[in-house]
Design brief:
The chain is an alpha/beta fold and 342 residues long. The chain folds into two domains: 4-90, 3-Layer(aba) Sandwich (Aminopeptidase); 131-340, Rossmann fold (3-Layer(aba) Sandwich), CATH 3.40.50.620. Helix content is 38%, strand content 22%. The chain has helices at residues 14-25, 72-86, 101-105, 128-137, 158-169, 188-199, 231-251, 265-277, 300-308, 312-318, 321-327, 333-340; strands at 4-8, 37-43, 46-54, 57-63, 93-96, 110-115, 119-123, 146-151, 173-178, 205-209, 255-259, 284-288, 292-293, 296-297. The strands form three sheets. It has a seven-stranded mixed beta sheet with strand order 1-2-3-4-5-7-6, with helices on both faces. A five-stranded parallel beta sheet has the order 10-9-8-11-12, with helices on both faces. β6 (110-115) and β7 (119-123) form a beta hairpin. The chain is globular.
Length: 342
């Protein structure tokens, strides 16, 4: 073994990125496009290990088999975690193959759950999930029909409002989970605030920040999944297992509602898995026909397109007044500019 060195990879340099990609390919892994920071471990000029970061997730981690068992993974992970801590990210997650989870457990990570031999989800805080569930439990309300909806709301539209109002009429309590991710054009806090504003007339509706345990399709790592056509199904199984096994019981949830999805195949497949899986946890799944405007379904993407096209009149017809008032405010100007420049 020569001189070991850790180097930060410049992902914008074709040669450096390609070297990491080829190394990961040996392990049937890919370097995902959303990585923001990558470390490479070298023995002299030989690449022997790599690991990356995206948000609060550690990913794309691999060590040359000839160097495994010599503390290389520990060295790599420790430096990746220090990078995260320096940026104020103290709650960290790893998605990996279950066969590899022991490596990360030895580094202090705790498994939340797993799906067969395809994916294991671990976090560095052994009380992370239980703390989140305690927060939810404080908002529990009793009733016969306890419903739930998971929404991104990028931004909150009349379509979202219509679905929530429908569910509110047919439920004793409604729990809304706003997906918490840093990939949406509208920031987390803004989306959460617009949902609250658009539902304040419904006394039986409770809004939650989804945080780290409502897993978005856009943030679900799939670098280790060989069968790429099964990614959506595996993501759905993991997300719904966490929801059915942990989240629903603490709130007494026995129904989950979704809007019909005639267009998006990803959402449609997720809904299909939901209908199959959630009843096993005693949760009925209901699909509701989505609200239309001028013959087309109202969607957040349609609103964003109208913003891009400067079609103010159609925006006014597709969003609640509270959302519209935000969209024409000074606070929204950076978001509007970003949408128009996409």
């Amino acid at each position: 073994m020569g001189d070991l060195a850790l180097r930060t990879v410049n992902l914008n340099r074709e040669r450096e990125r390609k070297e990491v990609e080829l190394f990961l390919h040996r392990f049937e892994l890919i370097l995902e496009k959303d990585v923001e920071y990558t470390l490479a471990l070298y023995d002299g000029e030989k690449l022997i290990g790599t690991g990356s970061v995206s948000g609060n997730v550690l990913k794309c981690i691999a060590i040359d088999p000839n160097y495994q068992g010599e503390g290389m993974t520990n060295k790599l992970l420790s430096n990746l975690m220090n990078y995260q801590y320096d940026r104020g990210r103290t709650r960290l997650f790893i998605f990996t193959k279950p066969v590899n989870k022991r490596i990360f457990q030895d580094m202090g990570f705790t498994e939340i759950t797993h799906i067969n031999d395809t994916v294991s989800l671990l976090e560095n805080d052994p009380k992370g999930l239980s703390s989140f569930l305690d927060e939810l439990k404080a908002k529990r309300r009793e009733g016969k029909v306890i419903s739930s909806i998971v929404m991104n709301c990028n931004p909150f539209t009349r379509g979202h409002q219509f679905l929530i109002e429908h569910v509110s009429k047919n439920s004793d309590v409604v729990h809304i989970f706003v997906v918490w991710e840093d990939r949406s054009i509208f920031p987390n806090e803004v989306r959460y605030r617009l949902v609250r504003a658009g539902t304040k007339h419904l006394p039986n509706v409770i809004i939650h920040q989804g945080k780290d345990y409502i897993i978005s399709n856009s943030t679900f790592p799939s670098y280790f999944i060989k069968e790429k056509n099964s990614i959506v199904k595996i993501h759905a199984q993991l997300d719904l297992k966490i929801f059915g096994e942990f989240i629903a019981p603490v709130l007494g949830i026995n129904r989950r509602y979704v809007g019909e999805e005639p267009v998006d195949p990803v959402t449609n497949e997720y809904n299909t898995v939901m209908k199959s899986l959630l009843p096993k946890y005693g949760i009925e799944v209901f699909e509701v026909k989505r609200l239309e405007f001028e013959g087309l379904v109202i969607s957040a993407s349609r609103v964003r397109q109208a913003i891009k096209n400067d079609n103010v009149e159609s925006i006014k017809d597709m969003v609640p007044k509270s959302t519209y008032d935000f969209l024409v405010s000074d606070e929204a100007k950076p978001i509007i500019d970003r949408i128009k420049n996409l």
